Amino acid sequence: LRDYVKGFPKESDLMIVIASDTVELKVKPGSGAVLVKNLYLSCDPYMGILMREPSPSTLALMDSFVPGKPIAGTGVSKVIDSDDLAFAKGDFVWGMVDWEEYSTVNPAGVFKIDVNINVPLSNYTGILGMTGLTAYAGFFEICSPKKGETVFVSAASGAVGQLVGQFAKLMGCYVVGSAGSKQKADLLLNKLGFDDAFNYKEEPDLDSALKRCFPKGIDIYFENVGGEMLDAVLLNMKTYGRISVCGMISQYFLETRDRLQNLPDIIFKRIKMEGFACYDFMDKFPKFLEFVLPYIKEGKLIYVEDIVEGLENGPRALVGLFNGQNIGKQVIQVARE
Ligand code: NDP
Question: In what residue span(s) does the Enoyl reductase (ER) domain sit (predicted)?
């Protein structure tokens, strides 16, 4: 990170640093450390927030990145050397790593990957990692969905949204998604099994679009974007509806945030609206895996990834989240196994 970011993150806010000294790829005996080669890195919208100067609000979520140091996030890596008995050379792990080719990691911050589960390793940045847990906890724990209910998902073709939509279909709900292009809306309808979808950039009257898709109203809204979309959704919620506030990506980097007109609907309709952070639900991780793995095996859950190659393309990929360039989960492939 070059320096704290003001406004929207740009590619130039990040710099590539090529180490000048030779580093031995070995851990110090007695250090308890694990040295890994990074294979895949996850791009997540919260990372843009952590590129900004910390504020009391953002510190409630996480510490900001440090200017002059590598940014960090979840990734998938291969163990090169280990001073921890739980990890051996050649193991694959996922967890928090710095954005770099090789990392020394704290063993407490990474999980061993079971290679007998036959999925691409990149999936541990998404469907089988924190993104999957986010969709699972935000939908099931916060919204308590019931068969036949109506569900609306914004940023629906993205990393989290595509899973929420599929979970809702598996529960027997009626599911509509919004996304920022025709290609993404087609993906929702033709590949991800949504019942309906609309491109919010072509339907500026969001209230009409929602009324068309939900003539009887929305039971559950999975919120990823905030702002005008949330305002329009509030008008279309049913009494006793639930809103899981996962993200508000349209608001993170604005100088002046949108002022909502329809918040009193929360009272009039007795709506439950709750924000959450995925890491609050780590204790649900085993239950989440028990739920998703059989569906993945049976081909009933699919996952769309957008993989760019090369750490040098990381800044472009990360910043692309904030203007909708990614189609599906944005991942960076740093190296091959
Ligand atoms: P996505 O894969 O959905 O990528 C971000 C997408 O957001 C873009 O592709 C774009 O899709 C959409 N977007 C960007 N800017 C805007 C805007 N101004 N208005 C509307 N949509 C916009 O990311 P994730 O699935 O990883 O994250 C989705 C949301 O969930 C984010 O808000 C994120 O912060 C939040 N999140 C929260 C977590 C938690 O623990 N609470 C954990 C993980 C994510 P489009 O082309 O459709 O506009």
Answer: 19-332
Among the atoms of ligand 1, which is closest to the Cα of residue 277?
40
Q: In angstroms, what is the span from residue 158 Cα to ligand 1's centroid? A: 7
- DSSP classification of residue 336: -
Whether 179 is in the pocket of ligand 1, judged by its Cβ within 6 Å, is: yes
Domain over 130-279 is classified CATH 3.40.50.720: yes
- Residue limits of CATH 3.40.50.720 in the chain: 130-279
Q: 153 in ligand 1 pocket by Cβ < 6 Å?
A: no
**In testing the pocket of ligand 1, which one of 160, 192, 305 has its CB within 8 Å of the most ligand atoms?**
160
CB of 162 sitting under 6 A from ligand 1? no
Structure tokens at 316: 């472009």
> Directed axis angle between helix 206-213 and helix 228-236, to 10°?
40
Structure tokens at 148: 């036949």
Total residues belonging to the chain: 337
Question: Is CATH 3.40.640.10 what the domain over 11-126+304-333 is classified as, yes or no?
Answer: no
Over residues 135-158, the pLDDT tens digits come to: 999 999 999 999 999 999 999 999
User: Measured from the CA of 326, which atom of ligand 1 is nearest?
Assistant: 9
ipTM: 0.99
Cα 192 to Cα 44, 196, 247, 300: the distances in Å are 21, 11, 21, 10
Q: Is residue 155 in contact with ligand 1, taking CB distance under 6 Å?
A: yes
CATH 3.90.180.10 spans which residues of the chain? 11-126+304-333
